[in-house]
Amino acid sequence: MASGIGIGLCLTFVMLLVVGTYSAAAGLVGAGSGAGGRVALVKGAVPAKYQALVEKWGNLCPAINPALLAAQLYSESGWNPSAVSPADARGIAQFIPGTWAGHGIDGDRDGDRDIWDPNDAIPSAASYDCELAKDVASVPGDATSNMLAAYNAGAYAVIRYGGVPPYKETQGYVKTITTLAKSFARPVGRVAPSQQAAGAIYFAQKQLGTPYLWGGNGTPDQDGRFDCSGLTKAAYETVGITLPRVANDQYNAGSHPSRDELLPGDLVFFSDDLTNSREIRHVGLYVGGGYMINAPYTGAVIRFDKIDTPDYFGATRVTRDGAEALPERSGAGRTPS
Length: 337
Description:
The chain is α+β, with helices and mostly antiparallel strands. It has 12 helices and 6 strands.
């Protein structure tokens, strides 16, 4: 669409799309993450080279599933097999050497237990989860929540308190991982409509015609200019939701509606590698009718563009809990376009 389209016409176009799309979506019910059945991973959320491992080992015991295991690995390392924390936690699963010595397994049966090898570390993470679940199996309540609490606070604390202990950090960890798991699970049914989408769109539409700036956050010293993820981040900040700065981390801020279930306010993502969400390079804000508002590239202005292109990766319906569950990282993965 030509960048010179009149702002008044643009705003009218957006309002018609929003009203029409939400009217068509009336009566939708929220989607589950697969509870009560086998949990499938949403396409591309787990990098392709790790997907088979996560699918296999994520079904090791009833307390875990592939989406939950994926959420733990993403939260720990962002799928980086070379990650090292200030506490000397190592590899894709962030095992401390002492914990690895007691719980690391030879997942690929090649004769060694390598903390840096995802073929050992991912199976070990699942095995450790299941060990903890067994340790707290007699504790009442949700087995998965108790397992996650034991992971964070130790099995003794879970047994002592008869469930998730009243520690802020532990309760936060349980909520974070179970929330993040929704961003890796293929939705069952339709995803519930966003309550904040209209406000995010209202902000974005006011930026139409503004020149693109790589790294732009819309600050006065940048003359109010944005890049792609800077625009979507700012749009959701106006409705009280803080997204990460980088597009590929924004992808995990909620569940993933299919193409034919998109609603205005969904984030839409684009990548040259459709098997790996960590390679996402562009994001826009869906407005309905097959169009998004986005900050495309240097030399262009914030404008409407069609989303149906060969590099369309998928979409995210942002939630406050989903955004709050995301780990803090500085520019992990691809830079914004």
